[in-house]
Amino acid sequence: MPFRTIGLLLLMAATLSVWAAGADPAARTRALQTTLTSREQQLWTGAVHNSNFSPMAPAMVRSACEAVRLPEALATPDPLIDPLVSSTRVTVSFIVGTDGRVHSPLILDSLGPSEDRIVLDAVRAWRYRPATCNGVPTEVEAKVAFSGR
Fold first, then answer.
1. Residue 135 phi, psi dihedral angles, 5° rounding
2. Which tens digits make up the pLDDT trace of 40-63?
3. 47-147: CATH, from 3.30.2420.10, 3.20.20.10, 3.40.50.300, 3.90.320.10
């Protein structure tokens, strides 16, 4: 019986501490909103890279495009390359799919396995408004170069 009393007291104490922590929901909401706002600004203030887009191979194109629109970068944050380690450039080739996602990223000029992994992970997370051919979304190949400097 004393164990039940102790357990009940511990449960009451835990409930009171949780209630006390949530006593000012407006302050918690303001703190959460500030944190979310700062994280959102960090995500959206990344540089938009000027990618070099190349047309699809003629065998892949079924008809001539009269109205071509290249992909538009929506979210392309920089990879966190260590400037002390990387004194050269890394070049990545990839395909922007009809869904606006990056497909098949490929390192053309390497910085080393660890830096290449960082760059590939960043590029895979990029999002674009897809390219269009006569108003229909189409895939295009792109190439981007990064340097640690």
1. 85, 0
2. 555 555 545 555 665 555 444 455
3. 3.30.2420.10
